[in-house]
Automatic annotation (TrEMBL):
CDD domains: CIMS_C_terminal_like (cd03311). Its cofactor is Zn(2+). The keyword Iron-sulfur does not apply. This is 2-hydroxypropyl-CoM lyase. Keywords: Lyase, Metal-binding, Zinc. GO terms for biological process: methionine biosynthetic process. One of its GO terms (molecular function) is zinc ion binding. Its EC number is 4.4.1.23.
Length: 344
């Protein structure tokens, strides 16, 4: 990538109303069969076009082919029974009815390869694809087979690695693993979290990034955030481990969060996808606000390592709000780019 401070979304964009209920997380599809396949591809094309029109440098699918960032992947695996549901506590924060692991987990065929191929056909720009991370996967399931979070995480890491290698072969330039669980389970993070993530990314030539966030702007998350105090130092647990890891970069929240930016020092040398857009607010940032967030981060990140991004996915937002936020992201990054080029 030649552009200094390139821009990229973390993940989801709102879906069109003909595909799924807008402004709702994880809403079911409105189409079926071939019409659904075609509808997802149409939505993906719109998502690409909107990112391009608003000047984004790294293009993603806006998660238009996925209902949920974790379960859509798991749905395609053997060993998980989606009819047998149990209520478990997710991210140590809220209860949810989840599918159950009832046997050995395995992947019989690729999950997202066709989608990546389709995305690849739509653009010559670098493309990024997101997969759930092993720890976040096990935290979204009830397990009646392995009876060990660690064992199941290693199994998923192997499966993710198979998938990631095929996504890379299909043309993905960047593979992102979503691990919001890294901000919650600090002992596991230390014991096997980063190790299983490295296993998932093993042997990839594509750039790898791990997205660690404080979640979508839903009530359970905003309530949790209110208990975290004036300074959110959760990243202090993961960054030193990731700094020593084979993972190329991290994606983190910044805009409107209480994350002290000096923690970026702990990840020096890695790529940093900095969240300069708040996804829990309908207020569209000004380019100057985005630029300010990026400038503050440049105190701790080398400019050639900084990627301007969003805090998390934008699925629950209105489409015009998401579009406005993309424009602000591009314009804000352009401001800082200009300042840096003047300085050189
Ligand atoms: Zn997120």
């Amino acid at each position: 990538m030649n552009t200094l401070i390139p821009t990229a979304l973390v993940g989801s964009l709102p879906k069109p109303s003909w595909l799924a209920q807008p402004e709702t997380l994880w809403s079911p599809w409105k189409l079926e069969g071939d019409a659904l396949t075609e509808g997802k591809q149409d939505a993906l094309r719109v998502a690409v076009q909107e990112q391009q029109r608003r000047g984004l440098d790294i293009i993603s699918d806006g998660e238009q082919t996925r209902q949920h960032f974790v379960t859509t992947f798991i749905e395609h695996l053997d060993g998980v029974d989606f009819d047998r549901r149990e209520t478990v506590r997710i991210r140590d924060r809220y209860d949810a009815s989840v599918p159950t692991v009832v046997g050995a987990v395995s992947r019989q065929k690729p999950v997202f390869v066709d989608d990546v191929k389709y995305l690849r056909q739509q653009t010559d720009q670098p493309i990024k694809w997101a997969l759930p991370g092993p720890m976040t996967m096990i935290d979204t399931l009830a397990d009646r087979h392995y009876k060990s979070r660690e064992k199941l995480a290693w199994e998923f890491a192997t499966i993710l690695n198979q998938e990631a290698r095929e996504l890379e072969a299909a043309g993905a330039d960047i593979i992102q693993f979503d691990e919001p669980a890294f901000n919650v389970f600090f002992d596991e993070l230390q014991d096997w979290g980063v190790a299983t993530l490295e296993r998932a990314a093993e042997g990839l030539r594509a750039e790898t990034v791990v997205h660690i966030c404080y979640g979508y702007g839903i009530k359970a998350n905003t309530d949790w955030k209110a208990t975290l105090g004036a300074e959110w130092r959760q990243y202090e647990a993961s960054f030193p481990l990731l700094q020593q890891s084979t993972i190329d970069g991290v994606s983190l929240e910044s805009r409107n969060s209480h994350v002290p930016l000096d923690i970026l020092e702990l990840i020096r040398g890695k790529k940093v996808m900095l969240g300069a857009i708040d996804v829990a607010s309908d207020t569209i940032e000004t380019p100057e606000q985005v630029a300010e967030t990026l400038r503050d981060a440049l105190e701790f990140v080398d400019a050639d390592k900084l990627i301007a991004s969003t805090n998390c996915g934008m699925a629950p937002l209105a489409r015009d709000v998401a579009r406005g936020k993309m424009s602000a992201l591009s314009a804000g990054a352009a401001l800082v780019r200009e300042e840096l080029s003047v300085r050189v």
